[in-house]
Amino acid sequence: MGRNWGQVWHINCDMRGQPLSFELSSSDGKALTSFNVVPKDWEYGKTYTGKQFLL
């Protein structure tokens, strides 16, 4: 996944039909993971919010 600008990201593969999880890394090396933030039936143009972060 690469950053285009601001909060806009791109990926060079088809991610439709599967749930999406995200891991964020801080500059001090810590990582936060939010699992299945986006459900498998997600649609372009919608906003999804994760409710859990695990250390």
From TrEMBL:
Expansin-like CBD domain location: 1-50
One CC-aspect GO term: membrane
Compartments reported by the entry: Secreted, Cell wall; Membrane
Membrane-topology descriptor: Peripheral membrane protein
This protein's record includes keyword Transcription regulation: no
Pfam families, alphabetized: Expansin_C
The keyword Cell wall biogenesis/degradation appears for this protein: yes
InterPro entries from the UniProt entry: Expansin, Expansin_CBD, Expansin_CBD_sf
Domain of life of the organism encoding this protein: Eukaryota
Name of this protein: Expansin
Organism: Zea mays
